Amino acid sequence: MGFWADYQDKIASGALKPDEAQGAIARKLDHLAEALKDYAPKPAGFFARLTGAKNGPAPKGLYIQGEVGRGKTMLMDLFCAHADIEPKRRAHFHAFMQDIHARLHAARRGAKDPLLTVANAVAAEARLLCLDEMQIADIADAMIVGRLFDILFQRGSVVVTTSNLKPGDLYKDGLNRQLFLPFIKLMEEKLDVVTLDSPTDYRLGRVRGRETFIHPLGPDADRKLQELWVKLTDTETGAATALDVLGRKLPVPQAAHGAARFTFADLCEAPLGPPDYLALAQNFRTLFIEHIPVLTPRHRNPSKRFILLIDTLYDAHVRLVASAEAVPEALYSEGHHAQEFLRTVSRLQEMQSASWWGAKIVET
Ligand SMILES: Nc1ncnc2c1ncn2[C@@H]1O[C@H](COP(=O)(O)OP(=O)(O)OP(=O)(O)O)[C@@H](O)[C@H]1O
Ligand SMILES: [Mg+2]
After folding, report:
1. What pairs with residue 262 in β-bridges?
2. What is the mean pLDDT of residues 224-241?
3. Three-class SS of residue 23?
4. In this structure, are 306 and 260 located in the same domain?
5. Which of 33, 113, 299, 325 sits in a 20 to 30 Å window from 41, CA-based?
6. pLDDT at site 53
7. Residue 223 lies in a domain
């Protein structure tokens, strides 16, 4: 069965909801799947001359950009499973780059040009390379991807990749970014850059009608919050990461697909301040805050930070999932900030509303 037929089958069976934006990209992937059937990538120089192998130019791969939960990975995986070309490799971009660095490390012992050696080997192992979640987080990756992918394309590898960012927004504000610009140009030249512009965040649809401010605390609350986490991220546990805040690292215990997860203690008992909260609001669409206690005069600084945190999240329209000892209006009744906390209560209430989470949520 062809890619398009399989995609249509999944819609007919109800496994996938019809989605015009996904359909448009599925058409492109279908064309690519067809082109790959007739494509034999270039053998290495000597061998090519020996066999007189003829081959057309490599078909253009795809760079699928779009917001979280739109179905980029779903489409890429469906395509990768289907593509009639061997060998093929599917990897998370981050894992792919870790593998590259490990091989570079090994190749440095012998090879004159380690990157060329590694890139040649990778190209030989993958005529089709499907890379999920392209993002360039550090300078070590930024400085090698240009040449690495240039060699992969020269060797005839076809790349399909997904990303939340357009090529031009990768490694934004990164150190020595001018040295990274050739990679952006390469992506734009060698790949068909398409946006998956679906109005539906399929993960978000799963939380519709559910409580997002869970109380009181206890195993039941923990379980409910964990359920929401899984629905919103498709993972049991996110990956630990860190944000750069004014030259410091702000540790994020768990992050996945635009969501981050903390405890109240992580965010409000540690000495964090406005730049930290702003960085969180700018980097995540959804924030999970677990174990918010009833705030007493003992919690003077944590209370102040909590008020600031909620204000910051509110201003950036971040979605909040929280577990707390009590409902918002019972969280803070006496102390210095009681008056100010009325605003926090009102915001916490609004942040639970369907309209805050997105009026156009499709039930999925
Ligand atoms: N048309 C659809 N009908 C039903 N479920 C869908 C549809 N498209 C995607 N999904 C499901 O929605 C979830 C999110 O899709 P997917 O992981 O592909 O999103 P994404 O665009 O890769 O998001 P991210 O940028 O966060 O990686 C997945 O569980 C996927 O199976
Ligand atoms: Mg994805």
Report:
1. 289
2. 96
3. helix
4. yes
5. 113
6. 45
7. yes
Banded pLDDT at 168 (limits 50, 70, 90) = very high
Which tokens sit at 241? Answer: 């990461």
For the segment 300-357, what is each residue's pLDDT rounded down to a tens digit? 999 999 999 999 999 999 999 999 999 999 999 888 888 899 999 999 999 998 888 8
Start-to-end Cα distance in the chain: 27
Same domain assignment for residues 335 and 290: yes
Q: Residue holding tokens 């512009």?
A: 197
Same domain, residue pair 175 and 137: yes
Residue 279 lies in domain: 204-357
Sheet holding 128-132, edge to edge: 88-92, 128-132, 158-163, 61-65, 191-195
Q: Which of 173, 195, 217 is the last residue of a domain?
A: 195
Q: Tokens 């109005």 label which residue? A: 199
CATH for 93: 3.40.50.300
Q: Which of 201, 202, 284 should be mutated for ligand 1, with most atoms under 8 A from CB?
A: 202
State whether 181 and 236 are in the same domain: no
Query: Tell me, what's the pLDDT at 52?
Result: 43
Atom number of ligand 1 nearest to Cα 202? 12
16 Cα–ligand 1 center, Å: 9
Q: Scan for tokens 């965040």, then name that residue.
A: 201
Q: Is the CB of 149 under 6 A from ligand 1?
A: no
Same domain as 132, residue 22: yes
- 168 and 210 together in one domain: no
Whether residue 364 has its Cβ less than 6 Å from ligand 1? yes
Last residue of one domain, picked from the residues 195, 214, 248: 195
Indicate whether 155 and 9 sit together in one domain.
yes
Count Cα neighbours of 154 within 13 Å in the Cβ-side half-sphere: 12
Summarize pLDDT for 38-89 with one digit per residue, the tens. 886 555 555 555 544 446 789 999 999 999 899 999 999 999 999 999 999 9
Q: What is the mean pLDDT of residues 183-195?
A: 98
